[in-house]
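Re-run with default settings, no changes from the original entry. Doing this only to confirm the output is reproducible before filing.
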Amino acid sequence: MKQKITGYHLDNENHWVAELKCGHNQHVRHDPPWSIRDWVTTPEGRASRIGIELNCIRCDEAGRAVAAAIIIEAKSQFLASYENAGISGLCEEGRLEAALGSLDSLPLDSILERALKPDPTQN
């Protein structure tokens, strides 16, 4: 997910870190030949990049976690509703209609909260 650079700071090893609008940080090293970013070595160079967008890997990871959590919850709710509709005696078409309709009431707020909850086992 693209996020704008809002500022910079040095990490504990004196490497430049871009501060992104989303609140995440990303290293922007000038480490030839692996990464060529000579602009990061001067205040003027860094200032010239304020506002440009970098791909935020942490936002990408969060987006994938949310999507996966929604898919898991939707499958579970769909199957439970389909089975309950069958127990209630609905025909196949009615079971499918009931199961699909149940997806409208997915608890998105709680799914998001669980999916984005920080993992205490990771730093």
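The first strand starts at residue 2 and ends at 10. The beta strands are 2-10, 16-20, 25-27, 53-55.
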